[in-house]
Amino acid sequence: MGVDSLQVLQDKLKLKNLGEGFAVENKRLIEYTGKETTEEMVHVLGDLHKDYNFNIVQIDENSSIIEATKRPTEEIKIVEEIPDLPISERAVGHLLDRISTLHGINLYEITNKDIALDKSFPNGVMLKGFIRDGNIYINTDNSTPNTPIHELMHMFMGGIRFQNPYLYQNLLSTIAKDPALVYKMN
Fold first, then answer.
1. What's the pTM value of the predicted model, to 2 decimals?
2. Strands 107-110 and 135-139: what pairing?
3. Beta strand pairing call for 52-58 and 22-25
4. Burial of 182 by CB count in 10 Å (0-12 exposed, 13-18 middle, 19+ buried)?
5. Are 178 and 169 in contact (CB under 8 A)?
6. Is residue 108 within 8 Å of residue 136, measured between CB atoms?
């Protein structure tokens, strides 16, 4: 039996079940997500309720319909960690420079000391890297040569997740079924 956060969402937003979706007052949705546009609201709902994909259809200025689709989790299984494979730091650097130039994704190197000074980011010193405000941060005290690509893949997969949830779930399902593919991806 897996996680199911839909009841929490129903309670917090006082959703009315319509069978194919849920009616919601726009003001409740704005208060809950802190966002004004449906695209941003969908993003926040997906972050808060990772076991569902969401779509929001605005009916009028006062109400919307939320469509919630359970993400499949039964196909996901734990695969033993694979050791780091050699990777050319020069190739990674060139790739990230091109991505920064073409897409505006910046890469910043920081240290545990820098992270510790940021009181809004507890336990950040434990990370090899992270994404914040659309930029990639690499903790030079903890990172490996693979860390920049790892963080970039979070952005890539996150983009697929929100732009094409069906493709995203198919990718996860395919990967989960083939441990050799997981190895090749690493």
1. 0.47
2. parallel
3. unpaired
4. middle
5. no
6. yes
What tokens does 93 get?
Answer: 């650097």
- How many other C-beta atoms are found inside a 10 Å radius of the C-beta of residue 49? 18
Give the contacts of 65 (CB within 8 A, at least 6 positions apart): 18, 21, 22, 23, 24, 56, 57, 59
Instruction: With beta carbons less than 8 A apart as the criterion, state whether 56 and 65 touch.
Output: yes
pLDDT of 102-123, one tens digit each? 777 888 888 999 888 888 777 7
Q: Using one digit for the tens of pLDDT, what is the confidence trace for 135-181?
A: 888 898 888 878 888 888 888 888 888 888 888 888 877 777 777 76
Residues in the chain: 186
Give 3-state DSSP helix, strand, coil % of the chain, rounded to 5: 45, 20, 35
The pLDDT value given to residue 57: 92
Instruction: Round to whole Å and give the CA distance between 108 and 131.
Output: 10
Phi and psi torsions of 174, nearest 5°: -65, -45
